[in-house]
């Protein structure tokens, strides 16, 4: 399965990000391209341990089961899946080229995480390094597919 810990996967994702433009339109969902990029930056900052959020109660009940289901195979994340309230972006503007570079920087940072890395996802709970790599790929791929990249 693809993981952001594989340098060729990170390069592939960055090449896909580079294809986004201000005129990129979503094939599903409510976000515009700027909001999507900002959302993905926020998600990566959470996964990289730069920001922390508390796990929601429902996640404590079903998070581990949902995590296993999410990363068990190559299937992409389904369309119109909900997002974490903390990662909803209402600001719809911004310099797309700057935002893309920032997003690519966060993608490249996964290559520097230690082998014992863990973080707490607000729904899934404690996520180890391997799971983080798979989730980060699936999340990024989902939003790039959303915008045809």
Please characterize this protein's 3D structure.
The protein has 149 residues and is mainly alpha-helical. The longest helix has 18 residues, at 129-146. The chain has a two-stranded antiparallel sheet with strand order 1-2. Helix 2 runs parallel beside helix 4 (96-109). The chain contains 5 helices and 2 strands, in the order ααααββα. The chain has a single domain (7-146), classed as Four Helix Bundle (Hemerythrin (Met), subunit A), CATH 1.20.120. Strand 1 (118-121) and strand 2 (125-128) form a beta hairpin.
Keywords:
globular; 5 helices; 2 strands; 149 residues; mainly alpha; Four Helix Bundle (Hemerythrin (Met), subunit A)
List the helices and strands and how they pair.
Blueprint: H1 7-18, H2 33-47, H3 57-71, H4 96-109, E1 118-121, E2 125-128, H5 129-146
Antiparallel strand pairs: 1-2
Mean of residue pLDDT values: 93
**What is the number of helical segments per DSSP (H or I, 4+ residues)?**
5
Number of strands: 2
Beta-strand percentage range:
5-15%
Please tell me the total number of domains: 1
The CATH class label is Mainly Alpha
Order of helices and strands: HHHHEEH
Summarize the structure.
The protein has one domain: Four Helix Bundle (Hemerythrin (Met), subunit A) (Up-down Bundle), CATH 1.20.120. It contains 5 helices and 2 strands, in the order ααααββα.
